Each structure stands twice: as structure tokens, then as C-alpha cells.
Amino acid sequence: MAYEVAKLKTGPKTICAALLHDTVEDCGVTKDEFIKTFDEEIYELVEAVTKIGNLEFKDEKEYQAANHRKLFIAMAKDVRVILIKLADRLHNMRTLEYMSEEKRRQKAQETLDVYAPIAHRLGLAEIKNELEDLCFYYLNNEKYREIAHLVEAKKSERDSQVSVMIDEISEVLEAHKIPFRIFGRSKHLYSIYKKMQTKNKRFDEILDLLAIRIVTQTELNCYEILGYIHATYRPIPGRLKDYIAMPKMNMYRSLHTTIVGPDGRIYEVQIRTEEMDQIAERGVAAHWAYKEGQYDTRKEQSEIVREFEWMKAFSDDEQSAKEYMDTVIGDVFNANVYCMTPKGRVIDLPNGSTPIDFAYRIHSEVGNQTVGAIVNGIMVPLNTVLKTGDVVELKTNKNSTPSEDWLKIVKTNSARNRIRACFQKKEAEDREEKVKQGEIILKDDMKRRGIDVEEYFDKEKFEKLYAYFRTPNYNDFMYSIACKSLTCQAVIERLVKLGKKELDTDVLQNIMEKNKTKRQKDVSKTGIVIQGISGLQIKLAPCCTPVYGDDVVGFVSKGQGIKVHRRDCPNVSKEHARLIDVAWDSEKPDYKFEASIHIYCKDRAYLLTDLVTCISQYKANMLAVNINVNPESLTATAAVTMVVDDYNHLDLIMANLRKIESVISVERAIK
Description:
27 helices; single chain; Beta Polymerase, domain 2; 21 strands; Hypothetical protein af1432; four-stranded mixed beta sheet; six-stranded mixed beta sheet; Ubiquitin-like (UB roll)
């Protein structure tokens, strides 16, 4: 292990930690003993690589996930930790033959799933290739031997062909006096197998088995060499990749092209500078000099995290071990789509990712406030699947919030977790606000009725009402008042009665049971309760379309029972003699409510599309949409009738409609 980390040009403390990496776990050495003999920095490196102790876990997978999380969080703080662990795992894989068959397969699968991808992400090509080939050997030995035999059988022929091509290319470059060194490059076995599997190709169809690498001095030389090669040999369309202008996320930079040689064979040519070649082989190790003791470790680590931006995902310690590993494997290891911001910042994402995933990869707040996306200059829906090379511009609104439908759209676990966290936070804030509203509403109603607030607004008195009104605690009690599922009149009546004669809990319980039975008989299917009246037909008025949670009043109509209006409905504002008190049942009915709204806007292209998209995002079924445009004032009025769950659902839709560009106002409609 010490030799492997030394090959990566690490410093003395890293090599020391590699030599001592098992002492704490296997030799019973205490922290104080270790620090006294060496120092705290070396101890922290060793402790980060040490497995979690004897904690309780449900199964081996959970234990393994907890160990990986510990390791990756430590890596996000100090990249030397993962270099030591990769050296350890490389040694484990080289000596795997001494383990049982079951252990061999388990260790190899874990290495292929976790350690090889992280070596690839850090640009440690040599370690990654050896780990993958060793895993391939133990997990699919038959296929390994088959491909190894094919490679070996063609080796002399392939070497001869590559040698001839190298001589020809050398003549071309020497004629133009460009500095270079050129050599053949062999592909490792697992990458051949993976390409055969993913692209469904035979061994002899793999184009880059005949591979040549050219190393030169400057970037300009790289492009010059590419030009001369394309002028001499026919390039295969679609096979040119410029990783110099668009580096990979592991900092890999090179030009790749595929050409047809004079013999008709296909050759892959890689062109890069000496510096690029070093980074391609040693990745993060080439980037960081590791001159321990001669620099500020924190500053150097921050440079690493800036270069390897995906490392930020490893520092999230708020998830369970299993969720953490699902996020890391799904969002980081499997990321192979590379998109850009308008300023050229590259964002890596897994296949199937959308602009919402892109937004959350930039920052949580950007994701939460996203309202639209422009991809390659064209406005697209938020469920559009992004491709490598897409330039994504996000439209945000600081007052916007995520939609529940986003959970079905997003691909990355990190985006999904952040959306859920936003919902939980908003729900807690909304509930807290509703509790305060309930307190204010009840106090104001007491004052209006001439009730002494100081005497009757008493939490101890309220406790004796919870069972009666079927609310478990103070917060739920006030929340029900704010949502209008519990009327102030009913609460005050009970409080006044309690003031005259205290009722014990048993009596209250009996009243509650009787009340529950009675209420069930008096509640209409729309959820409306009329105390002391039963058997009458109850309908929701179509003029103002009240929904569960609205402040409502009943209107006694001739021969048509009771029609329930919103209290602010102008059709009943002067009908005091025929109005009666009604209330919503505390238990929300299994009933959908029709609601009508008017949306006033400045006219523009795609306005109706944006309005309909917003409403559909919040799962409201639209029954009718009508839009009228005034060409003189360039304004538009949209009349929308939809089906909603309750007042809160409708209020959420209206609030988000108001955030749409060019919307002036959104109001409830009165027919």
C-alpha cells in the first residue's frame, strides 16, 4: 500500500498513514498512543480509513453502506483518504485468490460498484483499469479468458499494424517539424467487454483496439496534429471528440479521432500534451503535489473540490447510509451526460436527467425557484430529457416553490431529496402560520361577541374541548379553526358552558360519541354541517363555487333546500333574513370541488401553455378554459373552471399562477 501511494507522488504523512492503516482497527492501538507516537494528522487519515466499530445494523448491506458513507465524507474533507483506501483495495484484489469463493465475488462486486468508479472519477486510470480487470476475472472468469485469448491471438498482428501506422504518422508530423512522441496503446479487457455489451458488438467490431497516442508540447500543437492527420487520412464522421475544449469531470483532456488507415483498417488516435497525459494517467494525484507540511491542507483541498465539483455530493451527511449510497452511486458514479450553463460551466448528470435535476445540481435554492428552462435557445418543458452538449438556461422566480409532480420527473436522488425537504419545511411553516392564524381568529371572534379573552382564552380550558371536537392537541385545535373546519361559535359556546359548570373527561367522551353519531347524520356529502337541522337538501352554489375551507353561509331557498355560498358572494350579501350558519365538517369529505377563477395578464406568446402547465402541475383537473385577448391594450383574461381538493389546494394553484411572467392578478370568479 505504501508503495502504491508513493507512486502517486504523495507526501510522507500519506505514506505513513498507508503503512499504519490497520493499526487502530486490528491492533488495539488507542488514539492517545497513536498521536503520541506520530501526530494527529496521520491519525485522522488512518481513522478515516478504519471501518465503523461494533454498532447495531440490520444487515451486512447497511453496515457496508455506513462504512462507505464514512469514507466518502472523509474524502470530501481530505482526498488523501481515498488514495489510501484505493491502495488498500488494490492490494485486497491482488490477493483475492486466498479468500473463499463467496467472499471473492462479494469483494469483487463491491469494488466494481464503488471503488473502480471513484478511481475513474478521480482520474486514476491505472488503478481503475487494474481494479476493473481483476473484478472481471473473479466475477465472469469464462468471458475474461475468452476476451484475453482473443486479444493475445491478435496481439502480434495488431502490434505490426499499429507499428506501420505509427511510422507513417511520424513521417507526416516530422515533415511539419512539430515536437511529438508517439506510441501504441492497448485497451484493458473489462473496457472491451463493456463496449461489446453496451453497444452489442463483436470483438472484431471494436474500433479502438488499434489505438495510437500522440503526446506533444502545447494545445496549439494538438490541434495542428489533428489537422495534419485529417488532411492525410479519412476521418470517420461523428467520432471526433474534443475533450480539451470540453474536459471530462475527472479533468481528463485530450483530442480523440477515428481514422481509416491506408490498409482500410480503423485506428483511434489520441492527441494530448505532456501535462494532459500526466493528468490522464494520475488524475487528482497529478493535480496536487502533496508537499505535506509546505502548504495549507484546507486551501489545497478546497482547490481539489473546486476542480472536482462533484465531490460536494459526498459531504451531504443528512441522509441515512442507504440513501446516501444510492445518491452517490446514482448521481455521481453513473453520471455520463454533460451539459453546460450559458457561461460554460459543465454540469454532469445521469442519463434521463431533466432541467430540474440540472437546477438542483447547481444549488438547492436554484432548484426550488425554477419555473422554466431554455435548452439550446428553445423554451422546453421541465420534463425534457437532457443530452450531452446541451446548453441549459434556467428561469427562476424567488417566490416559486417545487411541485409534487417534480418527484415523478427528476432522475437524481439528490434532487428528489431536496424537493422532499422543501415540502417538509414549507408544510411545517404553513402549519405554524395556521396555528397563529387560528389564535387570532378565535380572539377576534371573542372580542366581537363581548367575551372576556383573558378569562376564556386559556389552554387548560381548551384541553377539555379536544375530545369533544376530536382534536388531539392545542396546535391541531387552532389549525382546525384557521382552516374553518371548526367554527369559533361552537368553540365559544363550549367554553362558556365550561365556565359555568366544569365537565369531567368521561362526560366529554360520552358527549363526543353522541355528537359524532349525530354529526354523521347531519353532514352532507359535500362536507357541510348544519347544527340542529337534518333531512334538508344541501347544495353548493354554482355562482361562487365554494370549496372546503372557504368562509361559507347557508341560503334557505324556496323548494330547493339550502344552498351554500361563500360569505363574500354578492348574490346573498343583502339576504340577511334567509341566511343560516353552516360549517365544514372537521373531517374533510371524500369529495372534489369545482372552482372558477379569472386570470388577468399581459398578452404574450405561449401564455396559455404556461397557465395550463402550472395548473396541471398541481394535479387539478380542468373542466373549461376560455381566454379572451384585447388587441388594443395587449391584455388577456382567462376564465378557468377546475376541480380541486380544498381551499388550500386552490390557494396554492392561484399563488403559483401569480408567479408566472406577465400575470397581473388571479381572482375567484363570481357568476
